[in-house]
Amino acid sequence: MPANGDKTSPANENALHDHQPGAGNPGFSTGTGNAGETHQTVKGDDPSTVLTDNHGHAIADNQNSLKAGARGPTLLEDFILREKIFHFDHERIPERIVHARGSGAHGVFECTNPIPELTKAAILQKKGDTCPVFVRFSTVAGGAGSVDTPRDVRGFAVKLYTQAGNWDLVGNNIPVFFIQDAIKFPDLVHSVKMEADRGYPQAGSAHDTFWDFVGLMPETLHMVMWAMSDRAIPRSLRMMEGFGVHSFRFVNEKGEGRFVKFHWKPVLGIESTTWDEAVKIAGADPDFHRRDLFEAIAGGDYPQWDLGIQVFDEAWAAKQPYDVLDATKLIPEEVVPVQIVGRMTLNRNVDNFFAETEQVAFLPSNIIPGIDFSNDPLLQGRLFSYLDTQKSRLGTTNFHQIPINAPKCPFHNMQRDGMMQTLVPTGRANYEPNSLNEAGEDAGPRASPATGFTSFAVNDERNDGSEKLRIRPDLFADHYSQARLFFRSQTDNEQAHIASAIVFELSKVSLEHVRARVLSRLRNVDETLAKRVAEGLAMDLPDAAKAAKTPIDMAVSDALSIQKQAKDILTGRKVGILFADGSDKAAIDTLKGQIEKAGGTAFLVAPKVGGIKVKGGTLKADGQLAGSPSVMFDAIASILMPDAAEKLTKDGAAVQWFMDAFAHCKTIAHCKGTQILLDKANVEPDEGVVPIESFIKVGTKRHWAREPKVRDLA
Ligand code: HDE
User: Fold this and answer.
1) For 543-559, how does the pLDDT look when each residue is reduced to its tens digit (9 = 90+)?
2) Three-state SS for 131?
3) 570-710 is classed CATH 3.40.50.300
4) Quick check: pTM over 0.85?
5) Non-local CB neighbours of 528 within 8 Å, separated by 6+ positions
6) Rounded distance from Cα 98 to ligand 1 centre (Å)
């Protein structure tokens, strides 16, 4: 045993040499005894490259704990080991109680159509004005490590770092919510999260407790229609709409107030997966959305959204058949058109997922002068909840000092101290007012009546606030009209998806009375929907539930349907091209070029990735066939020699590649050589199964007319 326990013994050196996985990696520092061989310690004495502990002490050996002899126990005095393990033990912070799994990115917001007549919000005053933004997209129900593609609502939270302070628009990809009053939120969330006794299912609403809640709380039904529609299985975070959900208030320089609802419209259009795809993607790539967002931004394909507003006043609101303070109701775009005021571009990935995406703290209470709240009882509850939750997640009232949360405009006040204070406020005066400056006069900072935030005085003309009541406004009792509006605004195909999704979810519900109660509610939404679901479950239709308010028929709204407003573009879409031994490289290059020219991405798939012999050279694939199922692409193409295709008929992954693409109504572009594989996969000719040369003309749009041939929908 060496006299100095801190020295690595020769035996240890050998062990390191044999077993260190990081050997040769300059970032992986090994013990002193090993320095020469592995290049893993600092060359020279440059202090900026020396590994230190958190208190600045240089570390000599980051591989071996301090022991009493080579084979002896570890010594308590090893402060380097203890600090490292101590910090590691506390690396996790509580995950968000909802929206735990998220993906974030930085970007910029630009005002494109100023609206000073509507609001004095600093960022909406001048065309071309910009501010940095941070966006976090999320699923709601699953834990931080759950998959990206469950059927779920997606969070769409935007932090705009304006010069008037941070404005957080913390919305979802669905314009309405399940409940009307914040007091029901814990119940809703408990019901949808994994069941309390068994700890499953993870990230899914297809279970008894959620549908029990739905059946007992008919106000959920409008949002349930959205959640059972294709909106809840988005193709990409880049292809979702975002909504502020609540009615907010705009206030202009003259002090005039109007209601406003916020919308984010994706420049790439709205696009969804099919349910079967979403399930398969969960296995093939649990990080499908996160990867897609990261890769698009890294590759310079910056996703963009236009910020739209629907503006209306109290008098108009008073005449509607629904209450604009009710978050389970929307205002059809056909009734109040969406006016575009700005554009958001996400152009930078986070540098550190934890520091930014995990530690970002959104607060619906973060608004700026020119914007105010409405009395929506759901919004009012949120104004408390988010601030409160940050203390539990981030552990300190000083969470606003974390760089991702700090405003990018100056901020100063008399708040002091607290856990993890990272600022060093100077001076004697920590109270306001004070006169401790040299002249003995007023010393700032002081409130500014001229520029400071003032609340809109009369936030609801229909409410004088003199009574304390635990009740809801009258029109909140209409739970069905807008659920019906949503369902009837869908294409036949989309209606079939909704009916099938409800059948799927209720089939996972084991309590029969829960299913029956939901059916009784669906009868008030739409009789045909209720019938289809009952048939899908092989159940009798129960009597319709008693409705507190008789539903009315509203004019259908095309803006509620994804398929009616689908964009037939290749931009942002991904095409998988299958090739194998002997494939024609020139044909592959041509197709790839065409796809890229149209703004899409071509992804080469082959049985082996390392480079295979093709006609015209060797070609490397981007992904191996078994690891790149066709669910990962918007359309597929295949360029194969007949003998290679014949060989692939014995490969399940190859046959499934075509079978799935066909079942998911995708374009399949193929050469003649592929035919034998198409036959094996039961791919029948239709307008979406085309020769390679026609691919660009047909594009990546889905061929929904095919769906009845491949799926038995409810
Ligand atoms: Fe949230 N919600 N929420 N929510 N919410 C949270 O805040 C809450 C609601 C939304 O990426 C939590 O920081 C209550 C509606 C998003 O960090 C928590 C109510 C909408 C995110 C919370 C609602 C949302 C959250 C958990 C009913 C759409 C993720 C962690 C009154 C307009 C933000 C956190 C992110 C997160 C409470 C309803 C959107 C617990 C009490 C309606 C996008 O504070």
Assistant:
1) 999 999 999 999 999 99
2) strand
3) no
4) yes
5) none
6) 7
